[in-house]
């Protein structure tokens, strides 16, 4: 990942969402992107130029556009029609984004469109977030990385964020993933945690 004077940036064409430019690079705002927040909290987070990324919960493509600046290709899955329109606009300017209008809870419907991924990145605000990630493990290469952005309040509001966090890590481990690191994304995103796992 590229930083200029401690500011995370990406090297792509600007003007996607009004982002600032520094030294000809796009500033990647940690308050708008959980992946950027993860980098600020843990500098070991990285994206390689030959990586294939399956991105679940692409929304309007803000983070997708930055990821696409770094990697070979991004398969971006989004379910909501309005954000999908924005994502399509982003994809028109970046030829390595494959937008997929689909429900991430039903990967069998878009499986023929995918290739094996080096990284699965998930930012889906639904109750069964670990289950959705596990459904996509057949698309993740052995040794590949799952980055799950866990929105604890969407999972179970009766449990504390810490309980949801612990339960999710346990469920992912039972599915054959090794949790490499896990951390809360405060102060950038309240009640959100990042869980980074390796597929064994």
From TrEMBL:
Enzyme class: transferase
UniProt function note: Involved in pre-rRNA and tRNA processing. Utilizes the methyl donor S-adenosyl-L-methionine to catalyze the site-specific 2'-hydroxyl methylation of ribose moieties in rRNA and tRNA. Site specificity is provided by a guide RNA that base pairs with the substrate. Methylation occurs at a characteristic distance from the sequence involved in base pairing with the guide RNA.
The UniProt record lists the keyword Transferase: yes
GO BP annotation list: box C/D sno(s)RNA 3'-end processing; tRNA processing
Gene from which this protein is expressed: flpA
NCBIfam families per record: PRK04266.1-2, PRK04266.1-4
EC number from the UniProt entry: 2.1.1.-
Organism the protein comes from: Methanorbis rubei
A Pfam family annotated for this UniProt entry: Fibrillarin
InterPro entries in the record: Fibrillarin, SAM-dependent_MTases_sf
Entry superkingdom: Archaea
SUPFAM superfamilies for the chain: S-adenosyl-L-methionine-dependent methyltransferases
Sites where the protein binds S-adenosyl-L-methionine: 62-63, 78-79, 103-104, 123-126
GO MF terms, alphabetically ordered: histone H2AQ104 methyltransferase activity; RNA binding; rRNA methyltransferase activity
CDD domains documented for this protein: AdoMet_MTases (cd02440)
Similarity comment: Belongs to the methyltransferase superfamily. Fibrillarin family.
Quaternary structure and partners: Interacts with nop5. Component of box C/D small ribonucleoprotein (sRNP) particles that contain rpl7ae, FlpA and nop5, plus a guide RNA.
Keywords recorded for this protein, A-Z: Methyltransferase, RNA-binding, rRNA processing, Transferase, tRNA processing
Record-given protein name: Fibrillarin-like rRNA/tRNA 2'-O-methyltransferase
């Amino acid at each position: 990942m590229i930083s200029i004077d401690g500011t995370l940036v990406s090297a792509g064409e600007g003007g996607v969402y009004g982002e600032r430019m520094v030294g000809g690079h796009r500033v990647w705002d940690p308050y708008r992107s959980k992946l950027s927040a993860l980098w600020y909290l843990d500098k070991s987070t990285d994206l390689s130029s030959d990586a294939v990324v399956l991105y679940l919960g692409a929304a309007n493509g803000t983070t997708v556009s930055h990821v696409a600046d770094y990697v070979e290709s991004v398969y971006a899955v989004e379910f909501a029609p309005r954000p999908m329109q924005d994502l399509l606009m982003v994809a028109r300017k970046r030829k390595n984004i494959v937008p997929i209008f689909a429900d991430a809870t039903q990967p069998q419907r878009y499986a023929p469109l995918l290739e094996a991924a080096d990284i699965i990145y998930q930012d889906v605000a639904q109750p069964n977030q670990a289950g959705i990630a596990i459904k996509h493990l057949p698309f993740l290469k052995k040794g590949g990385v799952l980055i799950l952005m866990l929105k604890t309040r969407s999972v179970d509001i009766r449990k504390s964020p810490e309980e949801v966090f612990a339960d999710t890590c346990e469920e992912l481990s039972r599915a054959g993933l090794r949790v490499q690191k896990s951390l809360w994304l405060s102060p950038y995103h309240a009640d959100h945690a990042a869980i980074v796992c390796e597929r064994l």
